[in-house]
Amino acid sequence: MNTVAVVDYGMGNLRSVVKALEHAAPAGTRVLLTDRPADILEADRVVFPGQGAARDCMLALDQRGLSQVLRETALTRPFLGICMGMQVLMDHSEENGGTDCLGIVPGRVRGFGVHLTDARGERLKIPHMGWNQVRQVHAHPLWAGIEQDSRFYFVHSYYVEPATLPVVAGTTDYGMPFTSAIAKDHIFAIQCHPEKSAATGLTLLRNFMHWTGGV
Q1: Residue partners of 52: CB distance under 8 A and separation at least 6
Q2: What does DSSP assign to residue 67?
Q3: What does UniProt list as catalytic (predicted)?
């Protein structure tokens, strides 16, 4: 049986992620919400969702013995990071006065700040919350069937800044352009919440369920 492990590190309600994956999964797929390292290491695919603060996320991962497990699985099988599960793949986050992260993808996490304005010069609210477009930078199997500039649902105050441009798979504008999706080998990660992004998000999750890694 094909197994997808959804990493549960005790932060946020992950039920909507599990339900969306079950809806998108082909017959015979087991979607397992787990915090057990052995379950994650045995899974065929790994989904790493999350919300909250980077420091709390890293503390929870370390306490559960999951940090090294994620480093290993991200390099060896299809791996999907969602929201905070994208940010802590980087080396370091500015959040909480500075937090070292997993260091799987070279780069940093930066805050939007308080002076963002739209095209009319009006102040933009932080966090960036609601529907926004994702511009696909290059082709990827997870973009299959998703139109350019499709809208996804976002909730975040920080964004990733990868060290190298080739890993940038999608960008979004919120007073400034920022990286909203990255792809590298077996890893695809996205800042938005596909489980809350209606049919477009389900298409991305369905694509992940059939993806074997690579571009």
Answers
A1: 11, 12, 84
A2: H
A3: 83 (nucleophile), 193, 195
Residue 178 has pLDDT above 90, yes or no: yes
What's residue 40's pLDDT?
A: 98
- Residues in CB range of 113: below 8 A, 6 or more apart: 126
Note the pLDDT tens digit of each residue in 78-89: 999 999 999 999
The string over 89-127, giving b where at least 16 C-beta atoms fall within 10 Å of a residue's C-beta and e elsewhere, is bbbbbebeeebebbebbebbbbebeeeeeeeeeeeeebe
What residues does 82 pair with on adjacent strands? 190
Q: Determine how β-strand 128-136 pairs with β-strand 150-156.
A: antiparallel
**What positions carry a catalytic annotation?**
83, 193, 195
Average pLDDT, the chain: 95
Are 188 and 146 within 8 A, CB to CB? Answer: no
- Examine the pLDDT at 68 and tell me if it is beyond 80: yes
